[in-house]
Design goal:
CATH superfamily of the largest domain: FAD/NAD(P)-binding domain
Protein name: NAD(P)/FAD-dependent oxidoreductase
Structural class: alpha/beta
InterPro entries: FAD-binding_MO, FAD/NAD-bd_sf
Distance between the termini: 29 Å
Keywords: FAD, Flavoprotein, Monooxygenase, NADP, Oxidoreductase
Family: Belongs to the FAD-binding monooxygenase family.
Helix content: 25-40%
Number of domains: 2
Strand content: 15-25%
CATH class of the largest domain: Alpha Beta
Largest sheet: 9 strands, mixed
GO molecular function: monooxygenase activity
Number of strands: 25
CATH topology of the largest domain: FAD/NAD(P)-binding domain
Length: 500
């Protein structure tokens, strides 16, 4: 393997990597590729997270791939079901032979003279090198090695067990015990009802309330359509419907936040069976300023109404031997504390990058069409949507990469790069303008730059990006195709693209 040069190196064997591999086999037959995965099995997020009740926070008709229909009854699926889906795709498309498990990428170095990426990877047997002509980074957007775990005074005094959801111990026994879950995001909202099934009581401790989206776990229309037509037809119809509904709802939340807030609160009231307490359920921000928390079948509100769970809104003063002392003076007794305090973002898998011997920091680069970087050759990356399913981005970026690879083959080009000679000429704006989530704000210093206009943008608009990546010409005066050693020049005249 060390001496082999492949056409495409795919970093990661989760949703992003698997999606790229299937598109590559379908649209670029004959291209060689290798999938580099630091864990010992495929699945990425769905292999790593093992906390109780882990599930999708998007419907599986959009979190699923466009090429493989989701056929199970529940559209809001649990982690094991999603992992089974990924294994099925892997076997169906014979991807395991391309996967290299236990390979942690330490560095990625580009040579314009050779028109090659060289990856230095660490394995149990030491370090080695892998070489490829194009690099696709499907490593996700958070740090696999550590979550966000803020410092709490008195943490060492607590006599019980403290657990972070990213590193859930398999032998944790919380049956009959008092559990406090710190946090109010998707992870906390998933944990509370699931732990409440066996715990003595579960308290969700939040600093600020969250907007909740209550919806059925099963999609009745999708299940009906599958009964009367082929799975792929039914899947395509529901996928298009859900994409449209997500887009409409998000834009309505931005344009008419008060109306959307009333709708969301009405559904919470129905699920609770009582009037929601304003302090507990009214966030200090508008819907979709942060990602909505999905509550399938209202399970968390059922646990609350039945007395098995509760929500406390307060700030932590310190941990004590028997629980948590709050700034209000109240004390929460706990046997187990779960710090569902969020993720820590990581850019491009924390890999050390260089281009022609010069270290490359992505916070110095502009996004190009939301999937490449200014002046970084032969590389694409996935950063999914904050307001929609991650896989929607995977499908369109993989399609776009295949368009580029076919164009390179047709034109005999070795190198493709979004050329930006004068970065100062690009007006900048905040990368995730309008999103106030803590995990985004904490990562501002490592994130790439955002231009005010395309093509130097990462948008949160799937329908817009779908048109840009799938339909707009590759030749835009920025994307440059050339051979190794040649001077960078944009393509003078558009060429017909290879059949896709």
């Amino acid at each position: 393997m060390a001496e082999q040069i492949v056409d495409v190196l795919i970093a990661g064997a989760g949703i992003s990597g698997i999606g790229m591999a299937v598109h590559l086999k379908q649209q670029c037959p004959g291209r060689s590729f290798a999938m580099i995965e630091q864990r010992d099995d495929l699945g990425g997020t769905w292999n790593l997270f093992q906390y109780p009740g882990i599930r999708s926070d998007s419907d599986m008709h959009t979190l699923g791939f466009e090429f493989e229909p989701w056929t199970e009854q529940k559209a809001i699926a649990d982690g094991p079901s999603i992992l089974n889906y990924l294994h099925r795709i892997t076997d169906k498309h014979d991807l395991r032979q391309h996967m290299r498990f236990g390979h942690k990428i330490l560095s990625a170095n580009w040579s314009s003279e050779e028109a090659l990426w060289t990856l230095t990877v660490e394995t149990k047997g030491g370090t080695s090198e892998l070489k490829g002509r194009f690099l696709y980074m499907g490593t996700g957007y958070y740090d696999y090695d550590q979550g966000y775990d803020p410092v709490f005074e008195g943490r060492e005094d607590f006599a019980g067990q403290i657990v972070h959801p990213q590193f859930w111990p398999k032998d944790l026994d919380y049956s009959g015990k008092k559990v406090v879950v710190i946090g109010s995001g998707a992870t906390a909202v998933t944990l509370v009802p699931n732990m409440a099934d066996t715990a003595g009581h579960v308290t969700m401790l939040q600093r600020t309330p969250t907007w909740y989206a209550v919806r059925p776990a099963k999609d009745a229309i999708a299940n009906f359509l599958r009964a009367i037509m082929p799975d792929q037809w039914a899947y395509n119809i529901i996928r298009k419907r859900n994409v449209w509904l997500q887009d409409w709802f998000f834009k309505r939340a931005k344009n008419k936040p008060d109306s959307v807030a009333k709708t969301l609160m009405k559904n919470v009231k129905k699920a609770l069976g009582s009037e929601p307490d304003e302090k507990t359920y009214t966030p200090p921000y508008n819907p979709w300023d942060q990602r909505l928390c999905l509550v399938p079948d209202g399970d968390m509100f059922t646990a609350i109404s039945e007395g098995r769970a509760s929500i406390v809104t307060d700030h932590i003063k310190r941990f004590t031997k028997t629980g948590i002392e709050l700034k209000s003076g109240e004390h929460l007794d706990a046997d187990v504390i779960v710090t569902a305090t969020g993720l820590k973002l990581a850019m491009a898998g924390k890999v050390a990058f260089s281009v022609d011997g010069e270290a490359t920091q992505f916070n110095d680069r502009f996004y190009y069409k939301g999937c490449m970087f200014s002046n970084v050759p032969n590389m694409a990356i996935i950063f999914g949507y904050l307001n929609a399913s991650w896989t929607l981005k995977v499908d369109i970026v993989a399609n776009y990469v295949c368009r580029i690879l076919n164009r390179m083959q047709q034109s005999g080009s070795d190198i493709v790069v979004p050329q930006l000679d004068d970065p100062a000429s690009v007006p900048e704006e905040e990368l995730f303008d309008g999103f106030s989530s803590g995990y985004v704000q904490r990562a501002n210093d490592i994130l790439p730059k955002q231009g005010a206009e395309m093509p130097w943008r990462l948008t949160q608009d799937y329908l817009f990006e779908r048109n840009v990546l799938l339909n707009e010409p590759l030749d835009d005066g920025v994307l440059t195709f050339r051979n190794a050693g040649a001077v960078a020049q944009p393509q003078a005249e558009p060429m017909a693209e290879a059949a896709e």
